Amino acid sequence: MRRRSWFAMNEPRTIPLRPRDRLYAAVTLVLAVLLLPVAFVRRPGRARELACGWALGMRFPAEDLTGLTDGARAAFTAARAEALWRHRQLIGLTSGYRDPAVQQRMFDEEVRRSGSPASARMLVLPPAESGHVKGVALDVRPHEGARWLEEHGARYDLYRLYDNEWWHFEHRPECGGTPPPRRPHPGVGHVLGN
């Protein structure tokens, strides 16, 4: 297994978008526009979100929002609809809810790889402490989408929590639009729900 560099884990890329990324974004937006009339018939008050969801579902077909809390799902759906319609930015979901057994397996594998539970906690939390198991954590892509969410996510109570994970955001409505202090990594001072 290749070890990720510290920089690659900390900050989204600042390299320019590849031509195909621009094409994907343009095609996804056109698709959302074409789906808008059907979405309006289905849900008049939420047509833009619905059309956006359908278009992004075609762009990121492996996404699964199942298991997220209602609040996290609604916040993510609204945030990425704004990102697409206002800023032409795509935000895909790499990982959301995780079954406790899957989270435990990930933690155990990281303990074996890194040599200790303390080292493992720098990248993976055990199930009892994981926002993924609670259904409030979202690992997003691409880098540009994560950057957009970091800038605008507070409107939706979505916050980046860890310096070493540019892709990881959590739905924290109790923060009321004020980002919580960012931690260096998941294992620092983590108390579930804080």
From TrEMBL:
The keyword Hydrolase applies. GO terms for molecular function: carboxypeptidase activity. The keyword Hydrolase applies. Residues 91-159 form the D-alanyl-D-alanine carboxypeptidase-like core domain. GO terms for biological process: proteolysis. It comes from the Bacteria. Keywords: Carboxypeptidase, Hydrolase, Protease. Pfam families: VanY. Residues 174-194 are annotated as: Disordered. InterPro entries: VanY-like_core_dom, Zn_M74/Hedgehog-like. This is D-alanyl-D-alanine carboxypeptidase. It comes from Nonomuraea wenchangensis.
